[in-house]
Amino acid sequence: DLSVGFVTGANGAHLRRVEEEWGVIMMFAEYSGRDVTPAAGSGQPRRTETLAIFGPRRGRRGAQLTMMNVIEGKVTRYFSAKIRQFGETYHPDNVDDSWGTSTLEVREEIMPYALGKNGGTRRKLMAASGCIVQYLGNFAVMSGTKVEQTHASEYLTWLLQTLDGPVHVTDLDTRGDVTVVDVPGRIVGFIKGSRRESLSRHEEDWGVLMLFVGEHGQHGFPQQEGVVQLLIFGGERARKGAEIDIMCAMEFKQKGWCTSRMSPRLSDRDGFDVERIQLTEVEVSYSLGMKGETRKKLAAASGAIIQFVGTMCCIAGEPVERGRCKDYLGWLLGRLKGQCTIDARGRTDVTEIRVAAPNSKAMGVVTGKKGHTLQGVARETGTWCVVAKDHAGHERLCI
User: Could you tell me which residues come within 8 angstroms of residue 151 by beta carbon, excluding any fewer than 6 positions away?
Assistant: First the structure.
């Protein structure tokens, strides 16, 4: 009962925030305190209260561990001491063989690194492994399938190993959760960024974990010549997005490193795949837009991953996503040649708005000065908005 107010927060704000994060509903089922009649009838005041969590299993477990973390912060070692003495006791009889919980003890002095700034490292481990990860004292508690638990434990172990020296992963050839990228040794520092900021940004953007293997200038080791392997852990789509972003950065720093090994590629394969289209520098600049805004709109509207490695346009996704992205890119580049026609007949991914007005300024009002109004709408809604003529030559707005 000492932590009830801490758990709920001011006016229940913390409870509501956790509910939104995990998609659950929480309430104290039998609240009773000193000089308060228990909800279930008369009885002695209790020193503990029951918090009921309703929702799907994953959401319930995530919210439960979040609340346990809050209580552990208020009442030191309330849960971690029990884990140290009895081990994890998360209802083992109520879950099937594929879902459960495991723990990993972390040295007290490196707990800040395991957590990361504002819990960033913990969230990164969750995103990359698909496992629920939370800390109770100096114990990492991991809930999910056996595969997810194993991945989370391995990722955390390797991440902590970087504090003491190089990381070496022995089963790269047999793992299905890793992508290996060869990075020139002399630009490893550029790819990592100051205090690992660049890598962390890519990790947060894509929900992956990235580690350099071997000795590459850290912990007093000399800068390695030749190639250093960068390991990207996570789901297939997230890994590919992060890989292409890293390739883009490498090509910027060492021109020709990636593009010399790449060639245009089209694919009709079912499932996730990558296609590559050769563009000119002018086309790349136009497709990127100011601060990459146009590229982001194409990606959001099509659902595909699109990035430019030098002058090579890489498009990754499912067949429908890749097809949409290629269409949108083709229409966009057509504007460079004065081709402003989009034939939307038979398409299910477009909404057409015809602006009818007695003067020619109506469309300008809709798009705003230099198209800023339309760009803002596209950015907020995750769409690509463009003014173009239809097959009959009539101008309209396509979303």
Answer: 128, 129, 130, 131, 177, 233
Arithmetic mean of pLDDT, 7-36: 81
For 271, residues 6+ apart whose C-beta sits below 8 A from its C-beta are 318, 319
Tell me if 116 is assigned to some domain: yes
DSSP H stretches of helix in 144-235: 146-161, 188-192, 197-206
Domain that holds residue 294: 262-337
pLDDT tens by residue, 177-192: 999 999 998 999 899 9
d(CA 90, CA 132): 13
DSSP code, position 41? S
Q: Does residue 345 share a domain with residue 328? A: no
With 0-12 CB in 10 A as exposed, 13-18 as middle and 19+ as buried, what is 377?
middle
3-state secondary structure of 38: coil
The number of angstroms, rounded, from the C-alpha of 262 to the middle of its chain's C-alpha atoms is 27
Domain co-membership, 314 together with 351: no
Query: HSE-up of 51 (CA within 13 Å, CB side)?
Result: 23
3-state helix, strand, coil in the chain (%, to 5): 45, 20, 35
345 and 327 both lie in a single domain? no
Compute the average pLDDT of residues 91-111. 80
In which band, very low, low, confident or very high, does the pLDDT at 16 lie, cut at 50, 70 and 90? very high
68, 62 contact by CB (below 8 A) = no
Give me the DSSP letters along 225-294: PSEEEEEEES-HHHHHHHHHHHHHHHHHHSTTTTGGG---B----SSSEEEEEE--HHHHHHHH-GGGHH
When pLDDT is averaged across residues 231-251 and rounded to a whole number, the result is 96
Which CATH number characterizes residue 55's domain?
A: 3.30.1370.10
Spatial CB neighbours of 170, under 8 Å, sequence gap ≥ 6: none
User: How is 316-367 classified by DSSP, letter by letter?
Assistant: EE-HHHHHHHHHHHHHHHHGGGT--B---TT-SS--EE----SSTTHHHHHH
Same domain, 10 and 146: yes
Q: In whole angstroms, what is the distance from residue 40 CA to residue 22 CA?
A: 29
Strand partners, 316: 274, 305
**Pick from 20, 22, 47, 23: nearest CA to 33:** 47
